[in-house]
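Dear H.,

Thanks for agreeing to be a second pair of eyes. The structure we're designing against is below in token form, covering all 273 positions.
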């Protein structure tokens, strides 16, 4: 099966399963990966472990941050330049969140197209193991990225990086607060955090957004819409306990949804054929 046909097949199946800079930081990405690993089927789990063995690790959480880490590795400079725009999508039609590929993902340079590309490679057993392992790392990471609201925003603020805030008595920016600041207030490591969220049971999935025919585009639109909710950008640029109490559950719900969807993606892509 061609990569394009494989990608379209995954998209169709995913809609049947799910009707309806550094995202999250190391903690959040590991939480998403661990949530997914806990819900892999036997075939997907075995294939994940087989592919990861080349890196001498066994868990998705061990490679969840690799696509960010390569920007600091001179040996991976070319790959970083080729993939750095695949961590996010900029909605250019603001203030709405309607995804239009020619406008919002020119030349396939966004997280929506990046997910489709690497899911197809991962599911193509004609590809070598090295290419499929690399694809696995990107799929795990990009599934986290696309569920972080500020990796799919429409404001001209570099995903909240230009929106300066006061948080815990220090200067910061909104992107950093969503990446790691709010999650850090729990005081949990990634294993404990994943266990806490997994104990809540499967995350309810949002309803489909018509007329989208691409699940990854839906995930991005959901994130974008979260940034448009009143109060997401705090009045006075100050983030206190009231903001955290309101928005941390939103962030955790996105983590839970990302983990559930990532498991579904991997179970489909790595199913025996």
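And this is the sequence the design step returned. I haven't edited it by hand at all.
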């Amino acid at each position: 099966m061609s990569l394009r046909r494989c990608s379209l097949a995954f998209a169709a199946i995913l809609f049947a399963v799910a009707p309806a800079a550094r995202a999250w930081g190391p903690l959040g990405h590991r939480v998403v990966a661990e949530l997914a690993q806990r819900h892999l089927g036997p075939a997907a789990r075995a294939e994940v472990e087989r592919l990861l063995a080349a890196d001498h690790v066994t868990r998705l959480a061990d490679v969840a941050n690799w696509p960010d880490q390569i920007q600091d590795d001179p040996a991976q400079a070319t790959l970083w330049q080729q993939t750095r725009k695949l961590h996010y999508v900029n909605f250019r039609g603001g203030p709405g969140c309607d995804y239009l590929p020619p406008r919002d993902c020119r030349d396939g340079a966004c997280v929506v197209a990046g997910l489709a590309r690497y899911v197809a490679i991962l599911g193509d057993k004609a590809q070598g193991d090295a290419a499929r392992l690399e694809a696995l790392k990107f799929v795990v990471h990009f599934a986290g990225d696309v569920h972080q609201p500020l990796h799919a925003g429409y404001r001209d603020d570099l995903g909240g990086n230009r929106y300066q805030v006061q948080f815990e008595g220090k200067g910061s920016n909104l992107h950093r607060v969503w990446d790691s600041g709010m999650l850090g207030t729990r005081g949990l490591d990634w294993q404990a955090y994943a266990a806490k969220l997994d104990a809540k049971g499967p995350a309810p999935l949002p309803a489909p957004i018509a007329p989208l025919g691409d699940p990854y585009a839906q995930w991005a639109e959901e994130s974008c819409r979260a940034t448009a909710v009143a109060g997401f950008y705090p009045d006075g640029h100050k983030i206190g306990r009231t903001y955290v109490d309101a928005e941390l559950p939103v962030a955790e719900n996105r983590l839970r949804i990302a983990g559930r969807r990532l498991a579904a993606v991997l179970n489909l892509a790595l199913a025996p054929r």
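Two observations from my side: The chain has a mean pLDDT of 90. The CA atoms of residues 14 and 265 lie 7 Å apart.

Warmly,
E.
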